Amino acid sequence: MSAVSFQSVSKTFPTPKGPFQALADVSLDIAEGEFFGLLGPNGAGKTTLISILAGLARPSQGRVTVLGHDVQADFAAARRLLGVVPQELVFDPFFNVRETLRLQSGYFGVKNNDAWIDELLENLGLADKASANMRQLSGGMKRRVLVAQALVHKPPIIVLDEPTAGVDVELRQTLWQFVARLNKQGHTVLLTTHYLEEAEALCTRIAMLKRGQVVALASTSELLQSASTNVLRFKSDDALPEPLAQQARVTGRVVQLPAQNVQEIEQHLATLRAAGVRVEDVEIRKADLEDVFLNVMAGVQEVQA
Ligand SMILES: Nc1ncnc2c1ncn2[C@@H]1O[C@H](COP(=O)(O)OP(=O)(O)OP(=O)(O)O)[C@@H](O)[C@H]1O
Ligand SMILES: [Mg+2]
Prior knowledge:
Layout: E1 2-13, E2 20-31, E3 35-39, H1 46-53, E4 61-66, E5 69-70, H2 75-80, E6 82-85, H3 97-107, H4 114-123, H5 139-151, E7 157-161, H6 169-184, E8 188-192, H7 196-202, E9 205-210, E10 213-219, H8 220-226, E11 230-235, H9 242-247, E12 249-251, E13 254-259, H10 262-274, E14 280-286, H11 289-298, E15 303-304
Parallel strand pairs: 3-8, 3-9, 6-7, 7-8, 10-15
Antiparallel strand pairs: 1-2, 1-4, 4-5, 9-10, 11-13, 11-14, 12-13
Helix pairs in contact: 3-5
The chain binds adenosine-5'-triphosphate and magnesium ion (MG).
Magnesium ion binds near residues 46 and 87.
């Protein structure tokens, strides 16, 4: 049985300018125990899909099940199987951290949960903030509480919508170790993130959404193999000659050019030299998930396994 099954899910929002289709016929099956990544640019429909999964929004068409439970017809059962970390920071300002977690335990009918709550606080670097009021926490700390809240009833399926947005490097690492450990213990994880190196390191399978449609669905290694194999990276202040300018990914002074093999790298360098482009800090690296992502979004690469 699938942990999560999205079956031909579409969602149309009414807007002043007329109906807007946020999701178009999305079908995905996430197996039990998978660490699944849902990627896509801003507005692709990731949060909409998660809201439908969590029973917070209704699909216009299609059906979603959680371990066989329909998220609409069988809402309570489906919801209990999920631990959802929402993208938006929402919390009750009148409670402290421990009270917030106890309240959430109560909501799911879990009693005497303090040992697990302590473990969560410890693992998420919140132990010294247990009695701090939610209002007194920094943005990153509030996000940590959201993560703890989602895990308080030890759900078999953990859904994380941008859990590391605004979270510092150290906690990102602790958080991922913790989530990876839960995954090893059998919890299914569905993650959305804009940190593609995190997705590459953690996810075994990935779906990419673009304007509400699945445009790539494959294992992480299949996705990486599908990319051009190398990237020539350098810094330059000069304008690139035309054939290269089109293929290049430029971030400030950093230029990255895809290349299949050594010959192509040599060719790129020769073209740059001939055009009088001065380059610094030249390096060659393996293509990564970000390269694949950009190719898929640009429509030059399609991956469906
Ligand atoms: N309640 C709503 N009414 C109208 N349009 C909406 C509503 N909720 C979302 N949308 C639109 O649906 C599209 C998908 O939004 P969604 O929040 O799912 O994107 P996302 O992939 O999560 O993006 P991000 O990476 O920025 O979080 C966007 O164009 C958004 O403006
Ligand atoms: Mg979102």
